[in-house]
Amino acid sequence: MNIDDHLFQDLPDPLSAQQFVDRLSENQPSHFRKLAKDIGLFSDVLTLASYSPLLATTLIQNPDYIWWLKRRRADSGVRGKVELLESLARFELTNSQLTHQILFARFRRRELLRIFLADIRRQTTVAETTEELSNLADAILENALRIARQELDNRYGGPQELDEKGRERPSEFCVVSLGKLGSKELNYSSDIDLLFLYSSEGETSGIGNRGKVTNHEYFVKLAEHISKLVGQQTGEGATFRVDLRLRPHGRVGPLAMTVNDTARYYNTEAANWERQVLIRSRSSAGDGRLFRDFFKSVQDTVFSVTQSVSSALRSVKLSKQRIDLEHISDRGYDVKLGKGGIREIEFIAQALQLAYGGRDRWLRASHTLISLARLGDRKQITDKELSQLFDAYDFLRRLEHILQMENGLQTHLVPNDPIRRALIARRMRFDTMPDLEAAIQKHTANVSGVFLRIFSDINIAGDEMKTSISFPVAAEELHITSEYENIEDEIAAFSTRFAEMTSADPTLIKSIPNLEDTFPEVDHLPIIKSNVFAFADFRERIAELRKAWSRQMIGIIAFDAAGKLPLKESKRRQTLLAEASISVAIDIARREMETRYGLPIDSLDLAIMGLGKLGGAGIDYDSDLDLVLVYDDTKAINTSGITHAEYYARAAEIFVTILSSMTREGSLYRVDLRLRPHGKNGPSVISRRSFLEYMENSSAVWELLAFIKIRAAGGDPELGSSIESAITGIILKRASLIPLDELASETKRVRQALENEKVAANRSGEIDIKYGAGGMLDIYFAIRFLQLRDNISDDEKSRSTDHTLSKLFANGSLPESDYQNLLAGYEFLSDLDHNIRLAIGRSTRLPIANQTALRNIAKRMNLDSVDNLLEQLTVHRLNIRASYDNVIRNSL
User: Which structural domains are found in the chain, ordered by start?
Assistant: First the structure.
């Protein structure tokens, strides 16, 4: 079908628009033909494709969004939180099979189509665009709070507290937003900075399946759950990047605190920069009264009547200088942090608010433009300066939006590359690149002039610059060479994981060994222990464990992403790091038990038994730690009045918390105890005697399949070795007594159930390389079935899948054709899975919507195109499924 040329004439990037047309007509021909009949809608869709390859891909993958956009594109005005919540509820009804994380991510992406179209059409102001983006975040947070609270109420009952007369009443909760979300100035790729408040201490009603817990425990879990729902990475990315580092006590602080405790912190302990943060704060979800009560009690500390003007300005200038220490790339101009950029406009407003807001409550506005206008009314800035700052803010924010919506990245950089800069100029409606550069120069010079005028007489003493402020450290402070910066850029371009880690903590760059050398062999355990046990406090030790772990992990990621670490070696290194982390966590737990019981504890007679990837010594990025925790009840414990089961249950709880709890530094591993005897209904830790009895008398076939990979991964080595040997013997003996057809049919049933469960949840139709037909589970189930059938245990020297396949082939358990199919399929899927994890994070599905990541993955796998990758994947999956069927069928 011919498309009128005039539809492409005024587009900034007609080539991208034409490529979109080609892809839509090829992949969605019926939608394409229908769209071509609606010239107005077609023009809008082409405009989106010309400005944003990200949204072009979204429309290709979800063509129904085109018709949704047709209905919504003419909407006038800003959609509020309530309206967006209603829209989200309708979206949820029609996408009920999606996980909440994917549902939120897709809903946000769909809404961005409408918001960005109005933005680039200049139908909305910058203030309206950022307000609507903020309302969208509020709606998703409110929905996430509803989901999380319902789940926790089902477990523990609702949280309760006592009123002034001693009567029970429900406790309330509030999600407080800070930063750009706090001032309703969210951009397209902002982090959302949050802290969580609850009304008072107490305990839950206990009307749930897990009994009562304290309000503190309930609300910490609630905050963690909300953060995961909104911020957890999926195959389609996270809905938002959630940043919790601005909460009281920062990295070591609890995720949720009472209103009174939080107010006490800001009034008595917080640093000046922390109080400055509260200028831009509000309630985004939950009970807004809690935030109003909180802010009422701290606002006179934030806007102090006693603070001098010079002191207020000095405090803000100190914060600005600390932020200036962030590494700003020399590859272009940074519209946020560069000289005369957005941050300087924000700090002009906040500095003057702090200087004069204590005596003038009218100046206490959170939105940058509103506060600037009020400062202009009070003559703290001149009419000319106000006009210059307004114009610069509008220009720089629009430019920031154009940069971020190209690929959905959190970028603020106008690149030096002339071709890319010329495209940005056209998207900003400039005729030529020099016109864009002249505009940047004019606006940033105006902002710098006002900034210098306000702060010119404020000096920062050397001692003040040494104060501990939690802002990133400069590359210059780390003495990072330009070579390292280039390497960092190259690696970050491929690995989202690397980019996120180094963005959150730029000091990690210094931990990377020289990439020109061979990756050194590292004994992680003594390094991590020496760092962790330099601290005496339990929370500080947990925080340091995460920091030390990150310093070890970043080197593995860097060498891996740079192509300097083979796949097997990467997994070996990660497994060793996981084992070291387990060992340190056991030691921290032992010392914490000493503290809590007030008695010396020489050792914990506890074995950490690994299953899954840990059992096979093949840990990869974001792997769960599938564990069974086993204690020796024949040895006395150094306490009285408590049973072995109670003692080790407490130790196990501390141990799991150390490894898996979310802190400001993140969590190390997801610890999964669901494979333990009796599953979720069983105790979290079991005695050696009970474990062996269960496996001998009660375990099902699926448990035999899972536990054939059991391995001692930490804790008491003697205990672990004896359990590993005994369990393997029991499994092989029990398997030999099961009729062959029963063993085969039960293996097939369990495998099919896992496949069906995932297929039902996968409404996107994306290829699932683990659970889908011909996926990794076909290989795993075939191997484990053959091990049970033919009485073959893992080798101590190598538990890898390819080694076990070779052992089965040598034993005659597999014919050569099936051996070759399973081995080649495993090598391909393992490589693909590893690169998906490295590039975008843990996902069992192929990220079809992220074509850039797929191209990079294909290149790393020495494939010349994404099409080639898909073709080979199809061939391997067909071969794997055929050989899996052969293995099971031949035994039925």
Answer: 75-302 (3.30.460.10), 578-737 (3.30.460.10), 743-889 (1.20.120.330)
